[in-house]
Amino acid sequence: MKNIFWLLLFFCSVALAQPNGELLASQCFQCHGFNGHSKGEIDSIAGESASDLYGDLKEFQNNGKNDIMSKQSRLYTDEELKAIAIYFSTVR
Ligand code: HEC
């Protein structure tokens, strides 16, 4: 009986776990620079507003194209895109 309690607790905590924005955002660093501070031609995305970033990502996700950002954005769930957008909005 005790085991069932721990099993339930485990599944609840997994279900409630929030996506880790910083970890997910690190995938973006390879093109947009460490923490979104680009040193190359691709735009910096650090410090942009979370809602603008999320809006851009949803647009990329739904534009039906097969370019870099459309493919990138389709790899994430809604919750993950929100976490990524919030993370970049907090870096200076
Ligand atoms: C393989 C390289 C690459 C990766 C990885 C990448 N991007 Fe991009 N990103 C680009 C390029 C190139 C553009 C410009 C594309 C365009 O304007 O159509 C762009 C444009 C953007 C823009 C719009 C420009 C702006 O200034 O607002 C946002 C937002 C963005 N990327 C966010 C992200 C996020 C968040 C991630 C990680 C989930 C990510 N990108 C991963 C290459 C990349």
Automatic annotation (TrEMBL):
Taxonomy, superkingdom: Bacteria
Pfam families, per the entry: Cytochrome_CBB3
MF terms (GO), sorted A to Z: electron transfer activity; heme binding; metal ion binding
InterPro entries: Cyt_c-like_dom (IPR009056), Cyt_c-like_dom_sf (IPR036909)
Signal peptide extent: 1-17
Keywords: Heme, Iron, Metal-binding, Signal
Domain Cytochrome c: 15-92
Protein name: Cytochrome c domain-containing protein
Organism: Methylocucumis oryzae
Phylogenetic lineage: Bacteria, Pseudomonadati, Pseudomonadota, Gammaproteobacteria, Methylococcales
